[in-house]
Amino acid sequence: MKHIISPLDLSVDELSNLLDLAADIEKNPDKYKEACKGKKIATLFYEPSTRTRLSFEAAMLNLGGSVLGFSSAASSSASKGESVADTIRVVSCYADICAMRHPKEGAPLVASEHSGIPIINAGDGGHQHPTQTLTDLMTIRSLKGRLENLTIGLCGDLKFGRTVHSLINALSRYSNIKFVLISPNELRLPSYICEEVLDEKHIEYEEVSKLEDAIPKLDILYMTRVQKERFFNEEDYIRLKDSYILDSEKLANAKEDMYILHPLPRVNEISVEIDNDSRAAYFKQVQYGVYVRMALILTLLDIHVD
Q: Is 37 designated active site?
């Protein structure tokens, strides 16, 4: 039984196979519409989510399976003090696979150690968000045709952004990747990621504070919101929340084939005037997320469709 707690739980070859399967699902959805008939996914979401939870549920429904679960800790036995380990032991009796989001880093890993079914980490605190990373990789590969030889700009909250941390880990395994890290000083990428991933693997990167300076050299611009829920005081959040706003004026200096990604939800870091630009890929990204999660469910349940 395999779990997905980190994007590195899949080898490069396994990841390639998964993305190939997701691409086939995109092209031939009818072929897979009953692949998980009789199977159930439990979506255990201890903190709020729209896209990730609904994406998992849509993925299983598209495969002909069914869904059970909860959308907040308050509506689960966690509110009575039940541990993650006990919850997953119980849920293993009801479902065939589980997607878990939890505010505490490492909670899905703990669940995997006590589970009788495959666990998918749907986000744990500021730590990892592997299925968003798989979505990001599929989006980049589909739009650019490759995952090598790219300059990736990561903009906004690089300190608490688990999507950023996961994406750096995943892309670090591909050749000739360069990162441009765009953030205020207070939200810079944690030093342990710079040292243990970028420096350790001799990956080229630079840290800048102005989006305007970085944008002309980028193949991909990955925007993130400043996350209010990760701040200890509101004053710091208010001071930093509008640090970067992508608008038409800034985008004028970008390459014609640069694409803009965003894990969503968007607050105001991308102006709505950008939505109709051909380089805006963040809503395509959402659709790719359904295909990737369909492929992941099939892979973890070891279901093959001819």
A: no
